[in-house]
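Try this one yourself first.
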């Protein structure tokens, strides 16, 4: 028996797995902050800079706040990684955009896009180099379907709504696997992490980046990597064990779906 998912399948379908996404060559580029940080150091904070390029990848822009064994997420928007020109310089760069911009333009790898943006003021708080994007124009749509539609990782196409990421939950992803295989997958995410070291003195914070996967548990690229440790007060440390990931992804419902097929613009679970 067939069960219709919804015509706006990308907003519903990714809660289940497996699902289908459009294919595109793998690209090992994304968020090389060490290089970009040096480059943007000379740019004026608060000054809008023109950019133009082809999107290499789109990933969610999510901030993680940790306080020992507690954590919460802020769903800020998306990061576009582009190859093109920024402030007259030709190179790769990353621009953070908001939810509304993504909802309007449905960014995906291959699209040619332009706009303006500011250099990030505090680089501990963003994985992109530029934010506050404005004047965005999609000059040309990239090849491929605007619907998610690929059978093997890395999964491309249009990133789903941030609510889908929230509902799916994430598992930790080995940073080396992320860098090597997941930088252009819509389910990969390199998060800014703000750690409150002492809950009685919340101004005492540390920052770092962590990589996560929101994708299918069956993904052949997935590697968890070592468990993560969160520093606490008086030298204490909390280790985030595997059960945290299992719990975070347990809301996916446990439904077994054998196939997902696009039929006349509508995705069906079969
Ligand atoms: S491990 Fe996760 S992020 Fe990496 S390719 Fe697979 S689904 Fe995408």
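Now uncover the answer:
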């Amino acid at each position: 028996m067939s069960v219709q998912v919804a015509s706006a399948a990308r907003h519903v379908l990714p809660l289940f797995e497996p699902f289908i996404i459009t294919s595109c060559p793998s690209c090992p580029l994304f968020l090389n902050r060490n290089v970009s940080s040096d480059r943007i150091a000379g740019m004026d904070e608060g000054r809008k800079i023109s950019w133009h390029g082809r999107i290499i990848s789109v990933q969610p822009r999510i901030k993680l706040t940790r306080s020992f064994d507690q954590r919460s997420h802020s769903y800020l928007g998306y990061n576009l990684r582009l190859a093109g020109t920024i402030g007259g310089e030709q190179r790769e760069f990353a621009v953070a955009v908001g939810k509304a911009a993504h909802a309007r333009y449905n960014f995906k790898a291959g699209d040619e896009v332009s706009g303006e943006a500011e250099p990030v003021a505090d680089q501990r708080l963003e994985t992109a180099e530029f934010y506050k994007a404005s004047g965005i124009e999609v000059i040309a749509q990239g090849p491929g379907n605007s619907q998610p539609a690929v059978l093997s990782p890395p999964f491309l196409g249009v990133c789903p709504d941030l609510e889908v990421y929230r509902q799916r939950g994430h598992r930790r992803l080995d940073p080396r696997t992320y860098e090597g295989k997941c930088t252009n997958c819509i389910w990969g995410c390199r998060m800014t992490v703000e750690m409150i070291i002492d809950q009685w003195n919340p101004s005492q914070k540390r920052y770092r980046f962590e990589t996560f996967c929101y994708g299918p548990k069956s993904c052949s690229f997935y590697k968890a990597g070592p468990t993560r440790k969160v520093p606490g007060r008086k030298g204490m440390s909390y280790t985030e064990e595997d059960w945290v990931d299992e719990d975070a992804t347990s809301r996916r419902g446990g439904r077994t779906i054998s196939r997902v097929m696009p039929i006349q613009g509508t995705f069906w679970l079969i």
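Discussion: The mean pLDDT is 81. The pocket of iron/sulfur cluster is lined by residues 153-155, 181-182, 185, 187-188, 213, 215-216, 219, 221-222 (CB under 6 Å).
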